[in-house]
Design goal:
This protein is mainly alpha-helical. It has 2 domains: 66 residues, Arc Repressor Mutant, subunit A; 136 residues. The chain has 10 helices and 3 strands. The protein has a 3-stranded antiparallel sheet. Strand 2 and strand 3 form a beta hairpin. Helix 2 packs across helix 3, helix 6 packs parallel to helix 8 and helix 7 runs parallel beside helix 9. It is globular and about 50 Å long. The N and C termini lie far apart (93 Å).
Length: 263
């Protein structure tokens, strides 16, 4: 007779509550990345449960998981606050990518994953010109998740996936708020390089993607009151702005006025 309490026993199917919680986590996470739940937005368990039709228990569980990852934070009886978009946050994403992305270099994916990477790379390249912005955005997220799967260590893989998702959110916010478009990511080349375990080529693609991300963030912050980092002590600003301040377009008007005053 089988011992159902044995640690080596085959696990049963996930409970319905666990499935709903995972579904809620995906749905709410997608809304955050897409900026449908805008940065700094205040929401509630009741509103989210009704919006995604997953029930209060599943919503609470999903929010707890998202809060643990830093995507959202509880604000007592007010509800839940979506992670703001600030200069400090953008700098954190840049530093995180610089630390985590090099882990991909030198990894040798198993044969099934290599085949998936090549296949998805070919599909992405073939469909790129015909994709709308929304469809391309979601295909990029899926291909990035597949690329992250090259990392065998689950914690590192999860951290990289979270960082990439939040970087996609930042790009979506920058495009909508400041009109700074992002070209299609070179993910077909990256996926093929990872499939071939070509560390040099993969490193070049990752480095180029990081540099372009930094450039877009810098352009956005040039039009905002927020700063990626504190200004040098030798030339402090007349009205210092906290790096935690949400990005705004107020600085654009200030800069224009200053240029017009020159004679």
């Amino acid at each position: 007779m089988l011992d159902k309490n044995s640690p080596f026993a085959v696990a049963g199917r996930p409970k319905r509550e666990e499935n709903l919680s995972s579904l809620a986590r995906v749905l709410i996470g997608n809304a955050i990345v897409d900026c449908d739940l805008a940065p700094s937005a205040l929401t509630s368990e009741v509103d989210l449960a009704a919006r995604f039709a997953v029930g209060l228990a599943a919503t609470r569980s999903a929010l707890a998981r998202l809060a643990a990852a830093g995507w959202i934070a509880a604000e007592g009886r007010k509800g839940w606050r979506v992670l703001p978009m600030s200069g400090e946050h953008l700098a954190d994403l840049q530093a995180s990518r610089a630390c985590l992305e090099p882990v991909l270099i030198g990894q040798v994916p198993p044969a099934p994953l290599r085949a998936d990477l090549r296949q998805r790379a070919a599909l992405y390249r073939a469909n790129l010109t015909g994709l709308g912005a929304a469809a391309r955005f979601h295909q990029e997220r899926e291909l990035l998740a597949l690329c992250a799967g090259v990392i065998a260590a689950p914690r590192l893989r999860g951290w990289l996936m979270d960082t990439w998702d939040l970087s996609m959110r930042a790009d979506r916010f920058i495009e909508r708020s400041f009109g700074i478009d992002r070209p299609a990511l070179p993910l077909a080349d990256l996926a093929e390089a990872l499939a071939e375990a070509d560390g040099t080529r993969a490193g070049q693609q990752l480095g180029a993607m990081r540099e372009e991300f930094v450039a877009r963030c810098t352009r956005a912050l040039a039009r905002s009151d927020a700063q990626i980092a504190a200004l040098p002590a030798a030339s402090p600003p007349s009205a210092p702005v906290s790096p935690r301040a949400p990005l705004t377009e107020a600085a654009t008007n200030k800069r224009t006025a200053q240029q017009g005053d020159q004679t």
